[in-house]
Design a protein that fits this description.
Helices cover about 10% and strands about 25% of the residues.
Length: about 240
């Protein structure tokens, strides 16, 4: 991670993307239903990892009920409401990288994460969406990935399940937009979401910050026609 930071700065000519970056693609949340934005935002105070520029605009999400993210005692991954929930493609794209096979990280009882994976993302999927925009979705459940490298995916398509693999204290979805395929050597980008709302107010929003409960306004089967889907594929393949 530390080696990657100066390389990212040089690639960006020492001008990292800021909150005014305009995404070339419209993105949906990588899940359905109401989830809590646990981590992430556009400024230093709310950022997932401000000083780590490849994760500066990343987000973490999980499901919370009655102030808790788990049922019973929360000592096993299956106790967590989001564990095993479907993970969806945030936009049309092409799968360019996958990692699978890592077991879930055990739930810690002493505050120390016992990561069992050689990659902090654990199991993950990287999708290219065109316009030098890639998304990474991490901490996926082992053997839940339903796509392979080279597959075309459509916005809202189920691609995996939420897990607890990698450097994580409890099950959640790590989601970020980045400039390139490489997690270590690509600057993260602000994500402009389309057709989502903050559930506590019912207000439509485009940018998120920690503490917000959010959901997609449209369900998967409402998203787009086959003609729209093919037009987006043609745009991606031309990049």
């Amino acid at each position: 991670m530390l080696i990657g930071i100066p390389i990212i700065y040089m690639r960006c000519w020492f001008r990292l993307p800021d909150r005014h970056y305009k995404a070339k693609v419209s993105y949906r949340l990588p899940f359905d239903g109401e989830w809590l934005t646990v981590n992430g935002g556009l400024d230093k105070e709310t950022s997932h990892s401000w000083r780590i520029c490849n994760q500066r605009y990343a987000y973490d999400f999980y499901i919370e009920q009655d102030g808790l993210s788990y049922r019973t005692d929360g000592l096993t991954v299956s106790d967590y409401y989001c564990y095993g929930e479907p993970v969806l493609s945030p936009a049309d794209g092409i799968v360019v990288d996958i990692k699978d096979g890592f077991e879930d990280t055990p739930i810690s009882t002493n505050g120390e994460i016992q990561c069992l994976a050689s990659d902090i993302r654990g199991n993950y999927i990287v999708i290219y969406h065109g316009g030098k925009e890639y998304t990474t979705i991490a901490h996926l459940k082992k053997e839940s990935i339903l796509v392979k490298i080279g597959d075309h995916v459509s916005q809202g398509q189920r691609i995996a399940c939420c897990g607890n693999s990698g450097n994580t204290s409890e099950p959640h979805i790590h989601f970020q937009l980045q400039q390139g395929k490489s997690f270590l050597f690509s600057a993260s980008l602000p994500i402009c979401f389309d057709e989502i709302k903050e559930t506590s107010t019912g207000t439509g929003i485009h940018y998120l910050t920690r503490g917000q409960r959010v959901t997609n306004i449209k369900r998967v089967n409402q998203i787009k026609s086959d003609d729209e889907f093919m037009k987006n594929y043609e745009m991606i393949e031309e990049e």
